[in-house]
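Could you join me in thinking about how sequence relates to backbone shape in a protein? We need material for that, and I hope you will provide a protein of your own picking. Once you have written the record down, we can walk along the chain together:

…
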Amino acid sequence: MIYKSFKDIKLSRLGMGNMRLPSLGEDKWNSPIDYAESARMIDEAMKGGVNYYDTAYVYQNGDSERCVGEAMKRYPRDSFYLATKFNYRANPDYKAVFAEQLERLQTDHIDFYLLHCMTERNIDNYLNCGCIEFFEQMKKEGKITYFGFSSHAQPDTLRRFADAHKWDFAQIQMNYLDWEFSTTEEEYNILTERNIPVIVMESVRGGRLSSLTPELDARLQEKQPGWSVSSWAFRWLMTHDNVLVMLSGMSTMDQVKDNLRTFDKDNALTPELSSFLIDIAHEFKKGFTVPCTACRYCTPHCPMKLDIPSLLKVYNDYKYDRRWENNLKDMEADKLPSNCIGCGSCMEQCPQNIEIPTYMAKLSKLHETGKEE
């Protein structure tokens, strides 16, 4: 495992994200977490040198924190670092949330504490509700070690928030695709200019950069035999000096092992390989339409209980090759996109600001007629 210095500690460059832990049922999003398999994965990560474990109050209906707490209590508390987050929209009572998180995680302190998913819609809530002052007091009492935030905001909002407080670190969505086609480069520079170290989320864009297309995957593997497609994304991130930890939301033991191989040594992309990867990204973008990362913040708020990320993936697959390998023919009638009522509840939760009802209407039309228009 490779490490990077932060303050007076060393952090593993690979961090284990715990938003997509394995489940016991076939419906992985609504089934209970498989605590035993999750513990095995954490054991493997610990054995491989990972010391940064990220979760949040809302992940997997709150059970992620409980699962991580149960798994980590078997290890000396000074052998790992816990990161979790306060989400204003989930519960604005920050004092009650923090007390509950300490209980869930079975710890007396949290190493890296974040204000969760800062956006244009909630920035004033975070700045004015008193939570910043409270969490700073928790730092003074030793219950929080480092205090930061995660952002899905536009650059101007990020500047405002970054300047509103002296932050220890920040977490942003960063990967080679968003660097080319979104505002990620500007966001990274905003934080770097302010000497705020970056924790990276969506390193492989919710798994979308773990497998591009058969043709593009083959080109990557031909260029560097033995490298997984996912590893290219991490090796690209390694080229950025202000990146501290790269999170991976691992769901399987195979993913853990592949990531550990990637981070076994510092093997950042050369300029030539970085250029090659960006060319691949441009090819990939031609068929990549909806920037969904499958974070699933939208699904609990859908009154029709639609699996929105899965439906958006069907649409993206269609836009890439016009084939319906991931089609809707076996889907239950009440789960089809035609059930979308266009209420917009999903959009209020979407960090990517996706016009979800618009795409549900397009997909419904595709399902009915085989044509988008």
User: Anything to note?
Assistant: The first strand starts at residue 3 and ends at 6.
